[in-house]
Amino acid sequence: MAERSSRRLAEWRTPSGRGCRGTEEQTVLRAFGVCLAGLLPVPWRGGGHPEEGLQSKRWDTSRIDIVSDIANIPAPDASFDAILCSEVLEHVPEPTHALDEFARLLKPGGRLILTAPFASNVHMAPFHYCSGFSKYWYKHHLGVRGFAIETLAANGDWYALLRQEITRLGGLERQRGNWAWPLAYAYGMFGLAYFSLRANRRAEDLACFGWQCMAVKE
User: Fold this and answer.
1) Residues 33-53 pLDDT 10s
2) Where do the DSSP E strands lie in the chain?
3) Collapsed DSSP state (helix, strand, coil) of residue 170
4) 49-77 burial: b if 16+ Cβ within 10 Å, else e
5) Helices (H), 32-157
6) For residues 174 and 186, what is the distance between their CA atoms, to the nearest angstrom?
7) What's the CATH superfamily of 2-156+208-217?
């Protein structure tokens, strides 16, 4: 990484600054010429829909270098060597417009690193617009924009997704006041016992948490 300290890495995150929340992390990133950008789908005025889905108590953009519309980033064409966009596209009303902007900003040979949920509970409402980003979505939309995919790897699989939701069931039922929540915890324990005994055969062709993609601009 030190050999590339003069290069610029555009890291697009949700407005919470997820992934680089601490001052120490940001100091290290900036030491290598990293530009931190937070992108709001609409002008943020606070509030949100706290009764819907999963929420963050605070969205802090005060330590972000650039705050802008992800489809209209104030930077020149071909000005970045790499772009990391992690768990953001589901919060963009038209995610392919973000890909258009990344294609504009990257230099030829530049790398685009993407993650987005294939299966996700609603979070940061009302700014959760889509999910279901399959490997076919990446192959199609990156291909038509002049990217060659180097890596496309599943994060988990259908069984890992099911195990996660079974684990969540008891707490969710208790939080929402369902009188049968103790049974939900018991069901979850039986489910975890099953997963500890089953053969480790993956089913990422059915579902997964999301796909981790690295592509190169041709």
Assistant:
1) 555 555 554 444 455 555 666
2) 9-13, 34-39, 66-68, 80-86, 106-117, 147-155, 210-217
3) helix
4) eeeeeeeeeebebeebeeebbbbebebee
5) 95-105, 135-143
6) 13
7) Vaccinia Virus protein VP39 (3.40.50.150)
pTM of the shown model: 0.78
One-letter amino acid identity for 78? A
- Rounded CA-CA distance 85/36 in Å is 11
What is the chain's percent helix, strand, coil content, to nearest 5? 30, 25, 45
- Peptide bond before 93: cis, by omega within 30 degrees of 0? no
Confidence of residue 178 (pLDDT cuts 50, 70, 90): very high
Length of the chain: 218
Instruction: Give pairs for 134-142: CB < 8 Å, separation 24+.
Output: 134/211, 135/211, 138/114, 138/211, 138/213, 138/215, 141/96, 141/99, 142/99, 142/112, 142/213, 142/215
- CB contact at 8 A, 184 and 134: no
CB 111 within 8 A of CB 214: yes
Where in the chain are the domains? Answer: 2-156+208-217, 158-197
- At 140-166, the pLDDT tens digits run 999 999 999 999 999 999 999 999 999
pLDDT for 17-36, tens place per residue?
Answer: 333 344 444 544 444 455 55
CA dihedral sign of residues 15, 21, 26, 27: positive
How far does Cα 16 stand from its chain's mean position?
12
